[in-house]
Amino acid sequence: MKTFRILFFLFALLLLGVAGLLAVNHTVVSPGREVGQQVDQLNGVAVYYNGRVGNVTGRNTTADGYNLGLKYQCVEFVKRYYYEHLDHRMPDSYGHARDFFDPSLADGSHNARRNLTQYTNPGQHKPRVDDLLVFAGTLFNKYGHVAIVSRVADDEIEIIQQNPGPQGSSRATFALRQQKGKWSIANDRIVGWLRKE
């Protein structure tokens, strides 16, 4: 009986430790910021602060009912950016971030669910400004992540993102390489990008 109590106590401590780790990894500490506060913009399209990664403040739709996504998740920003800046509506307006990329498609193929051209990382096509970048899910974020390419140079790209997670920055840069005729963004989670042609 005593062994059972010790094991139960240790298991409870382990669960508390995991819960604490998850809370730290899914909380953006930004004193003075309010959920829904604008923190950045690209081409006049605002990026809003979301607080915790899993925070949801309702659904954002256009006046005629087109679904932009859950406020202020990453998907909501990229879809709002494509809608407001590129006048683009996706045939399938639902899905998690990871669902934007269809792994069954070849590099440069048409992604019918999003009505965009899809490119793989690595692939034969260099990323461009306004491309929609797709990240795979992780152990702590099974839904993945999406962002917009805001700048492209010869050796790096910059992205703009909403609800970025613990680092809390709306901008990030990644090395860009070209080897053997293929372009790659140096991040193993980036599966590819989508483009309005």
Automatic annotation (TrEMBL):
It comes from Neolewinella marina. This is CHAP domain-containing protein. One of its GO terms (molecular function) is ligase activity. It comes from the Bacteria. Pfam families: CHAP. InterPro entries: CHAP_dom, Gsp_Synthetase/Amidase, Papain-like_cys_pep_sf. Residues 49-195 form the Peptidase C51 domain. SUPFAM superfamilies: Cysteine proteinases.
